[in-house]
């Protein structure tokens, strides 16, 4: 079978290679991937900055954001049926008794990222316990379920933290960034009834700005507009250190900030002490979130169904480029105006 592979640690080693078709062991299923979403993590792996091949393999099959059809069942699998459309979660525990999305580094493997082959192939295998069935209404956009699950977890954690202290009922939110994560966070918070502002560096007539506005969010181009006011909830989705630090000042007293980026080393703030003191004196909370559980995938799929009902094909507009295995290289190139690129593999 054909698969998109890299040699972790070797920059630009991406290639389409013929590999053996996997077979499902007991408790596992054979999947026929339909679509694979591509994100910044893939970019870092291709650049040789991250990633690990499975034990005994010289290469890693990419693809952690997947939509697939169940092709065959291993022994002792009765939770799914052949032909069902599913989304596999990403992380699997290794000697870890915590919920899998909270296992520390070194105690998990991840499909298409770390120690476990991904789904950018004609077939893949995974543990049946980590499959989430896709409602028929959103099969066409369910490839977005993985990034949406990270958003769902971050917001869920923020709500739990906020409400653990007092009767916290947030009504306003600021979303920094209008990439896939920022726009999906905007969608979720609007569906939850919060008044939102989405801020990014694209002009007001850009697709990203229009998409934020289509779900009822106010859009700000931070290159020309100034963020004003305070917000009960701030979602940082740019991955920029300076933006993350400066965003603390936009939190209202008792508010919660969610970090959904992965931040490079370095960065500085000219007044970090004042920001931290303000966070202490005003009981502000900052939480980080990465990866997600089956629960948060399910929450995301239900929000997709609701979005379809309220916003029509809005989610489909986030997919701005579709490639196939035959022109896979085009899928793994990026421009600043792309939102989500999808590698289409099966039907």
From TrEMBL:
What's the Enzyme Commission number for this chain?
1.1.1.47
Tell me if NADP is a UniProt keyword of this record: yes
Reaction catalysed by this chain?
D-glucose + NAD(+) = D-glucono-1,5-lactone + NADH + H(+); D-glucose + NADP(+) = D-glucono-1,5-lactone + NADPH + H(+)
Which keywords belong to this entry?
A: Carbohydrate metabolism, Metal-binding, NAD, NADP, Nucleotide-binding, Oxidoreductase, Zinc
Q: What terms describe the molecular function in GO for this protein?
A: D-glucose binding; glucose 1-dehydrogenase [NAD(P)+] activity; NAD+ binding; NADP+ binding; zinc ion binding
Q: Where does the chain bind substrate?
A: 41, 110, 146, 291
- Residue limits of the Glucose dehydrogenase C-terminal domain? 140-345
Function noted in UniProt: Catalyzes the NAD(P)(+)-dependent oxidation of D-glucose to D-gluconate via gluconolactone. Can utilize both NAD(+) and NADP(+) as electron acceptor. Is involved in the degradation of glucose through a non-phosphorylative variant of the Entner-Doudoroff pathway.
What family does the database annotate? Belongs to the zinc-containing alcohol dehydrogenase family. Glucose 1-dehydrogenase subfamily.
Q: What is this protein called?
A: Glucose 1-dehydrogenase
The root-end lineage is:
Archaea, Thermoproteota, Thermoprotei, Thermoproteales, Thermoproteaceae
């Amino acid at each position: 079978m054909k698969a998109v592979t890299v040699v972790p640690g070797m920059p630009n080693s991406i290639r389409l290679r013929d590999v053996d078709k996997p077979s499902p062991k007991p408790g596992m299923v054979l999947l026929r991937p339909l679509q694979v979403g591509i994100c910044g993590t893939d970019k870092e792996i291709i650049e040789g900055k991250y990633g690990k091949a499975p034990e005994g393999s010289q290469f890693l099959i990419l693809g952690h954001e997947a939509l697939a059809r169940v092709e065959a069942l291993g022994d002792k699998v009765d939770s799914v049926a052949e032909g069902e459309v599913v989304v596999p979660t990403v992380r699997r525990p290794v000697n870890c008794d915590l919920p899998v999305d909270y296992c520390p580094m070194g105690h998990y493997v991840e499909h298409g990222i770390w120690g476990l082959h991904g789904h950018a192939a004609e077939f893949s295998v995974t543990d049946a316990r980590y499959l989430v069935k896709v409602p028929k209404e959103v099969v066409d956009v369910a490839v977005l379920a993985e990034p949406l699950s990270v958003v769902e977890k971050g917001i869920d954690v923020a709500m739990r933290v906020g409400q653990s202290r007092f009767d916290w009922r947030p009504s306003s939110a600021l979303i920094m960034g209008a990439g896939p994560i920022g726009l999906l966070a905007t969608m979720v918070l609007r569906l939850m009834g919060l008044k939102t502002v989405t801020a990014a560096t694209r002009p007001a007539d850009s697709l990203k700005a229009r998409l934020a506005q289509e779900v009822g969010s106010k859009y700000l181009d931070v290159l020309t507009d100034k963020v004003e006011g305070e917000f009960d909830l701030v979602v940082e989705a740019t991955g920029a250190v300076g933006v993350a630090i400066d965003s603390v000042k936009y939190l209202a007293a008792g508010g919660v900030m969610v970090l959904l980026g992965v931040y490079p080393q370095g960065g500085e703030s000219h007044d970090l002490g004042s920001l931290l003191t303000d966070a202490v004196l005003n009981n502000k909370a900052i939480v980080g979130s990465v990866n997600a559980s089956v629960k948060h995938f399910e929450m995301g799929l239900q929000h997709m169904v609701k979005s379809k009902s309220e916003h029509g094909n809005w989610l489909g507009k986030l997919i701005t480029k579709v490639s196939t295995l035959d022109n896979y290289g085009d899928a793994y190139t990026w421009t600043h105006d792309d939102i989500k690129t999808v590698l289409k593999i099966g039907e």
